[in-house]
Amino acid sequence: MKPAFEATFSTDIRQRDAQLLQIVDGAFADSARRSGEHLVCRPGCTQCCHGAFAINPLDALRLGSAMAELAKTDPDRADAIRERARRYLTEFGPEFPGDRVTGILGESEEERAAFDDFANEAACPVLDPATGLCDLYDARPMTCRVFGPPVRMESAEAGDEEAAGFAVCELCFTQATEQEITAAEMAVPHAEEELVLAAVHDAGPSGNTVIAYCLLEPSGQPPSS
Q1: pTM of this prediction?
Q2: For the chain, does the N or the C end have fewer beta carbons within 10 angstroms?
Q3: Which residues pair with 166 in a beta bridge?
Q4: How far from 56 is each of 2, 66, 145, CA to CA, in Å?
Q5: pLDDT above 90 covers what percent of the chain?
Q6: Distance of alpha carbon 21 from alpha carbon 6, whole angstroms
Q7: Lowest mean pLDDT among 22-31, 66-75, 147-156, 179-188
Q8: What is the model's pLDDT at position 153?
Q9: Structure confidence by residue, pLDDT tens digits, 127-170
Q10: What pairs with residue 55 in β-bridges?
Q11: In the chain, pLDDT over 70 holds for what percent of residues?
């Protein structure tokens, strides 16, 4: 089983992705400094590691590359991740709202609605259940990198500044004022990510997927139904 992301994680895209990750990780660190005790994210807190979410082709390439490297340096750990991914897709694959062979999420209104209820309580296959840590932390998707601090969510209507709010982990900022939340806002480099994504799309892959589909080798067996 393998998602339809056939483009090589080229040197150029890899370098641009590394620069992007430096920017976003720096932005997180800066927000964490301003958040103080309100940001309670810590190793072993795994609430955000449960439930499916869409990842883009750049995230998928990064995870696939990390898995290939891990298979060389720590094959036992790579095998454990792949086994968790196989169990995940065996259980939830039949309900996957998209192409169950490639892992590409569907774009229809019905498929988007179905994804809202897909694997909501399932642990991410990259989460080590023994340690509560991410086994591919350095290659984690952008959603994981920005989760926790206040991140501005734009209104559904472009330009509606008054309707803009913040997405914050429900475990964080529970005692913070609106001013403290605003002061800790994390600046997410959306524009920089879009530039790298454009290069990825030019190389071939397209469509969003979920993490489990990025972890298996082509010889992996897809869900049968």
Answers
A1: 0.88
A2: C
A3: 152
A4: 15, 16, 14
A5: 77
A6: 22
A7: 147-156
A8: 81
A9: 999 999 999 999 999 999 999 999 998 653 344 433 348 888 99
A10: 209
A11: 87
Q: Is 148 left (phi over 0), alpha (psi -120 to 50) or beta?
A: left
Cβ pair 143, 103 in contact under 8 A: no
Closest of 52, 36, 11, 204 to residue 141, by C-alpha: 52
Q: Which amino acid is at 208?
A: N
* Predicted pLDDT of residue 27: 97
Q: How far apart are CA 36 and CA 180, in angstroms?
A: 10
Q: In sequence order, what DSSP letters do the residues of 2-46 get, joined into one string?
A: --S--S---HHHHHHHHHHHHHHHHHHHHHHHHHGGG----TT--
For 31, the token pair is: 């927000």
Please give the Cα distance from 44 to 134 (Å, whole number): 9
In total, the chain counts a number of residues equal to: 225
Where exactly are the structural domains of the chain? Answer: 11-214
Which residue has 């998209």 as its token pair?
Answer: 98
**Percentage helix, strand, coil, to 5, in the chain?**
50, 5, 45
